[in-house]
Design brief:
The complex is a heterotrimer of chains A (about 150), B (about 650) and C (about 270).
Chain A (H helix, E strand, L loop, with lengths): L9 H21 L3 H26 L3 H31 L53
Chain B lengths: L5 H7 L2 H20 L4 H24 L7 E12 L2 E10 H24 L6 H20 L3 H19 L6 H31 L7 H4 L6 H19 L7 H4 L5 H10 L3 H14 L6 H30 L4 H20 L7 H39 L17 H15 L5 H19 L4 H30 L18 H21 L4 H6 L15 H21 L9 H8 L4 H46 L7 H20 L3
Antiparallel strand pairs in B: 1-2
Helix pairs in contact in B: 2-3, 2-5, 3-4, 3-5, 4-5, 4-11, 4-15, 4-19, 5-6, 6-7, 7-9, 9-12, 9-13, 11-15, 12-14, 12-15, 13-14, 13-18, 13-22, 14-15, 14-17, 14-18, 15-16, 15-17, 15-19, 16-18, 16-19, 17-18, 17-19, 17-21, 18-21
Chain C lengths: L21 H16 L8 H21 L5 H22 L3 H21 L3 H26 L6 H4 L4 H20 L2 H4 L23 E2 L5 E2 L4 H12 L1 H22 L13
Antiparallel strand pairs in C: 1-2
Chain lengths: ~150, ~650, ~270
């Protein structure tokens, strides 16, 4: 077996870029939230940018890095306009689900509907019992975490 | 008078068939605009070709009595196949000139009659186009110099007879009758083609032109079969037993059509064919084997002709429709002609040639006179139909002699000629046939016995002929006057456009026999055609004439005695059998027609279910493909992206993974 | 055009060593794990999914470390790669959108670290500022404006998880095979794959690639200066166009998201 080389191989960086790209693809195709779908697209762009920078490093020039600079610029513009559009779409239908937008289908096809029911939100917590006099009530548990 | 010479006949002769064909095309194209004037082009054309034909006839008659009277006019090459070369060639000799003149002349008067008879019919132009085409085709048939060109005319008259029998095609019986006529004669046509091929094989490498065809020996067996096939063709066209079933049904067509096609011209094509072919085949320097072969064939012709003659006469006795009686009488008379064509002898070449020529001459003479008086009879029946509102049932009409005087006289003349009473033409021609049969019975050698039997049959048929003819005449024109309601205001004599042809045709029906028979003019003329033996001038055979006349008179007497009595209960079955044509039609129906119809229905079913459904299946494939691919377009953005990604994967894999 | 014939995988490896199947196995396992982890209203075996994904990641990292000598650079590279990949996995599989957005931040930090090890410090900083600072904050704002509480169609469901995971796995496998396969067979140009670490260089020698004493390629240490020189000399028009693009995007975003208030809008708007 050959002695291990001093520095990591180019292909490893390319593979990481490829993994990011493919994961982004999976997420873009699978997620139904408009915003999350777009985030996955941004992830794909990350993978591509990593590719460029790796090639720049291993070819010894700065072309790749220049391109990534422009890529960053374009990604920022794209994000801005995408957010604006998503806001408009949300105002139109009241939901961020991509699946409500199916008007481009064939006339003879029925719209795709979800079969499985969503899990019901948890039951309302009972009213907190009154504490002994003198102590303030506990604040209720927050339902959404960030 | 315009001088007809051999040189300008080169131009004039093709006009005889050409003008009527051209007039047919003219009327076919401009028929809508011509309307009631459609008969003018046809009259003009047929009239001109009649004039040319008569002039040609005179020319042939004058063209030198000692040389063979034959002129071939060559126009162009039709086709060549190996050793066979067939050209557009017309032939003018005694036989073809006589036939052309007769056909054109009778057609002219029948066309004139039709102008009156078919007046007011919505298919007026179609009728005249078909009739004109028919006359053209018949002329091609008789003027052709080779068998393929004759076949062209043969088929042409077949098609036109289909068009004209089924003229009122909306009536189911007429359409059926037209189909029946066409299909039965089709059988004959196929046989004729086979006969042509066999004849070519038999005489290889002679070819099929009449001028070169007969000058040498043929292979006897092949010749026999060739003649049998030609004979079947002739039987089909001339409605001999067993292919006679189409002629009575063909009466569904208009009466002038029946006069033209089924009395005077088309049905005589078979007689013409055999008359053209038989005498030269028994000519000088012919081998005994060939003679034997021809003799065997003639036996068949003799028997079929005799059977037809007798059978048709018997059936005619049971008919009540005037046109049907005339149709069966046509069958019967055609039987006579074929009987004459079957006369021959097996002893000696020269004798045979002489006998066959004489008998064929007698057959052609009877053809000639029969054309006139039968056409006359049919036209008068048409006149009666026109007056009686298309009713011809003898049980419903009667006593018309005061009402339709001219028609009455015309019918009477025709009936007398048909029954064979002197001095009318039928007497001489029928006598000629009986004489030929008798000669065959005397000197026929091995064939004498058969010819003797046929002679007896001919005499019996002569008696029956007189019987049914005069029964019809008496029922229609004598007795109390009965006019059916359909007649309406028509019950008067026909207009001149219809009675003039009657008068014109009555003259030759009455007199032509007397003019050219006993003086041997006709026989001399016809038998001077190349390949025939010249006529011998016998004395008039008073014995045979007397016997024939006696038979005819016997029949007429029985007719007068019977009057208009209904058939008795005892003879009801017989009469019923006769009326249905002795069930021959029914036999054909069950054994031939019904299986074919069944086969046709089966194939129709297969075609609809299998073939059409298969074609439909192919048509459904694009739709099915579309339907199966349509769910891909479900409007979901991410689905499209997925599809794109999968495509990308496949593409990359193709480029990088494939070795 | 690809040569004809059936695709032969791993032809260059000769299949003698079962270790060669590890990349394929790990890719398949990873995609299966992602499939299990994708949001599902019924819930699913999330623990199993995480285990599978982590195992695949470990296998990947191990395979990368096998051929390289241990050094700080290698460790850093592996750590940042793992962070990026983990952040990506969480982004793809978390149902809560806010958590997913923050996982994206982790991924961005990972790639920025990788830029650092690849000799692009300016880009590392720019990446963090633009992505983690601007884009993700914007996203979180919009999420805040638009998101409903609790399980909903948009966060708890996936569109075709199986096909999506399968496609991702296939694509990854194909790319991986291309990248790591036999160079000669794939007809890729010869590449010097033995990079030198970043060496300082002087500004004067800025044109093109430079080689050090042993002939290995180097990129300049004054990365920002040289990057700036590169883009303003070779890609000047691109820079200007990018500026215009930024302005246009700003205006467009404002116009699109504007509330259509009749009192505010001009005379042309209904």
């Amino acid at each position: 077996m050959a002695p291990p080389s001093e520095y990591p191989d180019l292909s490893q960086h390319l593979l990481v870029g490829a993994i990011l790209f493919c994961l982004g693809l999976v997420g873009f195709v699978a997620r139904r939230n408009l915003i999350l779908a777009f985030l996955n697209a941004e992830l794909m762009i990350q993978g591509v940018a990593l590719n460029f920078v790796a090639f720049a490093r291993y070819r010894g020039n700065l072309e790749g890095q220049s391109f990534v600079l422009f890529l960053l610029t374009v990604a920022a513009c794209e994000a801005a306009i995408a957010m604006a559009l998503i806001l408009v779409l949300y105002k139109n239908r009241g939901t961020l689900d991509v699946s409500v937008w199916q008007e481009l289908r064939e006339d003879s096809l029925d719209p795709v509907v979800d079969a499985e029911p969503l899990p019901l939100p948890g039951a309302q917590p009972p009213m907190p019992p009154l504490p002994t006099a003198g102590l303030g009530p506990q604040p209720p548990e927050e339902l959404s975490r960030v | 008078m315009f001088n007809v010479t051999t040189e300008n006949l080169w131009v004039l002769l093709p006009l005889i068939p050409g003008l009527p064909v051209f007039a047919a095309m003219l009327v076919a194209i401009f028929g809508q605009r011509l309307g009631n004037r459609s008969h003018y082009p046809v009259l003009l054309a047929v009239g001109t070709s009649a004039v040319i034909a008569i002039l040609a006839l005179i020319h042939v008659n004058h063209a030198g009595k000692d040389q063979a009277r034959e002129a071939i006019y060559h126009y162009a090459n039709w086709f060549e196949a190996g050793n066979l070369r067939v050209d557009w060639e017309l032939r003018l000799d005694a036989l073809s000139a006589m036939m052309a003149a007769m056909v054109s002349f009778i057609s002219l008067w029948i066309v004139l009659f039709s102008a009156g008879y078919m007046h007011g019919d919505p298919g007026y132009p179609r009728y005249f186009a078909a009739v004109s085409l028919f006359v053209g085709a018949m002329n091609i048939l008789v003027l052709a110099n080779n068998l393929p060109l004759l076949f062209l005319g043969w088929e042409g008259v077949g098609v036109c007879s289909y068009l004209l029998i089924g003229f009122w095609f909306a009536k189911p019986e007429a359409a059926k009758a037209a189909r029946k006529a066409f299909l039965v004669t089709r059988l004959g046509d196929v046989a004729l083609l086979a006969g042509m091929v066999l004849l070519y094989r038999a005489g290889d490498p002679v070819g099929l032109s009449f001028d070169t065809m007969f000058s040498h020996n043929y292979d006897p067996t092949t010749l026999y079969w060739a003649l049998v096939c030609l004979g079947i063709g002739a039987f089909g066209k001339s409605a001999q037993f067993p292919l006679h079933v189409w002629l009575p049904d063909a009466m569904e067509g208009p009466t002038p059509v029946s006069a033209l096609i089924h009395a005077a011209t088309m049905v005589t094509a078979g007689v013409y064919l055999l008359a053209r072919v038989l005498p030269p085949l028994t000519g000088d320097a012919v081998s005994p084997a060939q003679l034997q072969a021809v003799g065997n064939f003639q036996d068949i012709v003799l028997v079929c002709g005799g059977v037809t003659a007798l059978l048709a006469a018997l059936i005619a006795l049971g008919q009540t429709d005037l046109k049907r009686i005339l149709a069966y009488s046509t069958l019967s008379q055609l039987g006579y002609m074929f009987m004459a064509l079957g006369v021959g002898t097996s002893s000696g070449t020269a004798e045979c040639h002489q006998l066959v020529s004489a008998a064929s001459g007698a057959a052609v003479f009877h053809l000639f006179t029969h054309a006139f008086f039968k056409a006359l009879l049919f036209l008068s029946a048409g006149s009666v139909m026109h007056a009686m509102g298309n009713v011809l049932d003898l049980r419903r009409i009667g006593g018309l002699r005061k009402l339709l005087p001219i028609t009455h006289i015309a019918f009477l003349i025709g009936a007398l000629a048909l029954a064979g009473l002197p001095p009318f033409s039928g007497f001489f021609s029928k006598d000629g046939i009986l004489e030929a049969l008798e000669q065959g019975a005397h000197s026929g050698g091995e064939r004498a016995g058969l010819q003797q039997a046929m002679l007896f049959l001919g005499l019996v048929t002569a008696a029956l002929t007189g019987l049914y003819t005069f029964r019809a005449y008496l029922l229609a024109f004598w007795g109390e006057q009965r006019v059916p309601e359909e007649a309406g205001h028509h019950a008067h004599e026909s207009p001149p456009v219809m009675t003039i042809p009657l008068a014109v045709l009555a003259v030759p029906a009455a007199l032509v026999g007397l003019a050219v028979g006993p003086s041997h003019l006709f026989a001399d003329f016809i038998q001077s055609a190349p390949g025939w033996s010249p006529a011998e001038h016998h004395d008039f055979a008073w014995k045979m004439a007397g016997i024939g006349l006696g038979a005819g008179l016997l029949g007429i007497t029985v007719a007068f005695l019977l009057g208009d009595r209904r058939p008795t209960r005892a003879s009801n079955n017989l009469v019923g059998a006769a009326r249905s044509g002795f069930f021959i039609d029914d036999v054909y129906n069950s054994f031939i027609t019904k299986p074919f119809e069944f086969g046709g229905r089966l194939l129709n079913f297969l075609d609809r279910e299998l073939v059409d459904k298969l074609a439909e299946l192919f048509g459904r494939i694009p739709a099915w493909m579309g339907d199966s691919l349509r769910p891909l377009q479900n409007g979901l953005l991410q689905y499209y992206a997925l599809a794109m990604a999968l495509g990308l994967v496949v593409l990359i894999a193709m480029f990088t993974l494939a070795r | 055009m690809p040569p004809s014939g059936m695709p032969v995988l791993f032809a260059e490896t000769g299949m003698g060593n079962p270790w060669q199947l590890l990349p394929l196995a790990s890719v398949l396992a990873a995609s299966f794990g992602v499939f299990l982890l994708l949001p599902n209203p019924r819930g699913g075996p999330r623990l199993l999914g995480y285990l599978i994904v982590l195992g695949a990641l470990a296998a990947f990292v191990a395979s990368c470390c096998r051929q390289t000598a241990l050094s700080v650079e290698l460790v850093l590279q592996q750590v940042f790669s793992a962070a990026a990949i983990l952040g990506a996995v969480f982004l793809v599989t978390q149902s809560n959108p806010a958590r997913a957005a923050l996982s994206f931040t982790l991924a961005v930090l990972g790639t920025s670290g990788l830029y650092l090890t690849l000799g692009a410090p300016f880009l590392a900083a720019a990446n963090v500022i633009v992505y983690a600072g601007a884009i993700i904050v914007t996203f979180l704002f919009v999420l805040m404006l638009a998101q409903q509480d609790g399980p909903s169609d948009s966060s708890s469901r996936s569109r075709d998880p199986f096909l999506a995971a399968l496609t991702g796995g296939l694509l990854l496998f194909v790319i991986a095979h291309t990248v790591t396969g036999d160079r000669a067979r794939l007809q890729l140009p010869a590449l010097s794959s033995n990079p030198a670490p970043v060496m300082p260089a002087r500004l004067a020698d800025e044109a093109g690639a430079r080689a050090d004493a042993s002939g290995r390629l180097v990129i300049p240490a004054e990365n920002t200066a040289f990057l700036g020189a590169n883009i303003y000399r070779q890609f000047l028009i691109g820079v200007e166009v990018a500026g215009v693009l930024l302005v246009v995007a700003t205006v467009a975003a404002i116009v699109i998201a504007q509330r259509k208030n009749p009192a505010v809008a001009g005379p042309g708007v209904k």
